[in-house]
Amino acid sequence: MDLTYPPEAEDFRLVIRAWLKDNLPEGWFDEGFSMTPEERRAFNEAWTEKLFGGGWICASWPTEYGGKGLTLLQQVVLNEEFARAQAPLRADFFGDTLVGPTILQWGTEEQKQQFIPGILKGEIAWCQGFSEPNSGSDLASLSTKAELDGDEWVISGQKVWTTQAQYADYIFLLARTDPDASPHAGISYLLVPMKQPGVEVRPIQQVDGSAEFNEVFFENVRCPKENVVGGVNNGWKVAMTTLGFERGSSATTGFRRFLREWDTLVATAQENGKDADPLIRQELVKSWSDIKIMQINGYRSLTDALNGTHETAKLGACNKMFWSETHKRTMNLAIDILGMEGQILSGSGDAEGMLPGGVRGRDDYPVSSTQASFFFSRSETIWGGSAEIQRNIVGERVLGLPKEPKVQKV
User: Fold this and answer.
1) In contact, 368 and 301? CB cutoff 8 Å
2) In CATH, which superfamily holds the domain spanning 124-237?
3) pLDDT tens-digit profile of 136-184?
4) CB count, 10 Å around CB of 141?
5) Which listed residue (81, 132, 212, 246) is catalytic?
């Protein structure tokens, strides 16, 4: 692990810091800075345009497709400085981080010209259609089908836990295009317009009152046959690329949001006297230690990538399992620190405000940021690969244990 960045990376860091200072609202870096809901909405509306003007959206993408062609280390520095300033970087997680890089790696030139500009400008909203009611962890068992009818694919089936589907213009989904092939071999990766007849989105309301997850039903929905990414029946390999982008995009910065939450928990414990409780103090120390482990593992992964040694690449499952379960334990601790006050809705009730996890607040169920994080942490051990599946991956691919026996169908 190497924590020393070369001089050119530190020079680039100064460029990012100067840009942030010039473009963030006056007083942003002052202690106690805050914005009214109206000011926050105005900031959100203008910020994406500023990011695009600065070239910071998808800055690691090739220059011929609108990026800056940043090196890996420059991208890391960019992420670190935006995280340090607590300034939002992405316009659209699904577009910028998942489907955009997938199209750049697997898409045709026509697909790149059609979709990449809209992703960069934030003009196309995306959602991801992988999970199904009976095909969550066992994704290869999906049953949504796509049949070619002339120049179009006709899609029928159901997806679930589809985040932001009610706002999306397109969904990148997996569908079975060859029912006679083996489960992994008969799947294709399709880019499907959401605003058309046959698409029904049903929000799933969560316990905190939010409804960012959805069920999505497809009944004879159509998309051009050219909207297959990576070739027909090659969707499994393409999808694994997408999941790789999801799990590896924040190696050296992901710990920061957990550290900010931890600082808030300490302040809350000091305010209500829970910091004198030896059990609470012990759990706070454990949580801090786990967060530091996340940070160190991030630097290990970065060093590994820069050196091209690939020694930690197979430990991605360990990292995902570790941070998601750590956050779940930390948010349990948060509720313990709040005590009975944690049972009282203490949010602002600003329906336009964004809560942890990119969840929109609700006027009729005003949770605080801590309460929202508690609820959201329950899902983090599931999305991106459940903790149970991650343990299987670690056991089989890292430790070399025998594969889990297949369930025998009667």
Assistant:
1) no
2) Butyryl-CoA Dehydrogenase, subunit A, domain 2 (2.40.110.10)
3) 667 778 999 999 999 999 999 999 989 889 999 999 999 999 999 988 8
4) 12
5) 246
Give the phi and the psi of residue 160 in degrees, each rounded to 5: -145, 160
Mean residue pLDDT of the chain comes to 86
Which residues have a Cβ under 8 Å from the Cβ of 90 and sit 6 or more positions away? 57, 96, 97
pLDDT grade, residue 224 (50/70/90)?
very high
Beta strands in 35-149 (DSSP E): 126-129, 145-149
* Residue 364 near residue 350 (C-beta atoms within 8 A): no
Gap between the Cα atoms of 107 and 175, Å rounded: 17
Domain boundaries in the chain? 7-89, 124-237, 250-398
The yes/no answer on whether domain 250-398 falls in CATH 1.25.40.390 is no
From CA 139, how far away is CA 162, in angstroms rounded? 14
Contact residues for 236 (Cβ-Cβ < 8 A; gap 6+): 140, 174, 184, 185, 187
Tokens of 117: 């500009």
Q: Looking at the domain that runs over 7-89, which CATH code has it been given?
A: 1.10.540.10
246 catalytic? Reply is yes
